[in-house]
């Protein structure tokens, strides 16, 4: 995610940044694994985009239940309200909300003066301030297509990615999250 003034960066360059933890927001697996170990904690709701995409209504209800049983019950009793929530959180709507505003919002949040800083965002300060420009066209919320990796990865990138995943996830069953998804 970069300003519109930055030139496009090839997928090959982005891929290298991603598997070395230098893409925006740091190393994917460092982030994922830090939360994965808490997936069964009562105050954590852990799911994948692929699960959400496969059954959006069911996961919307699970999210509502997680936030409070009354929220889930209200959505179950009012199908029109559930439709509105699903529509408001749709990919198309999120693209409209976030693609233009996210870069500015994150920079503003992590650069608040200390007395106004949000402590939980401190982890993002270096990531946001040192992020490497990667594109100017796709925005923060992209296509949302499960399996779109096939349109971008070369055979060499698939091999590199598989090796990186194996190294980063050794000793963990985290990749079971995607056992039913067509990954390389």
From TrEMBL:
Domain Sulfotransferase: residue ranges: 4-172
A matching Pfam family: Sulfotransfer_1
Statement: the UniProt record of this protein carries the keyword Transferase: yes
Segment forming the signal sequence: none
GO terms for MF: sulfotransferase activity
UniProt keyword annotations, A-Z: Transferase
InterPro entries recorded: P-loop_NTPase, Sulfotransferase_dom
Similarity comment text for this entry: Belongs to the sulfotransferase 1 family.
Protein name per the record: Sulfotransferase domain-containing protein
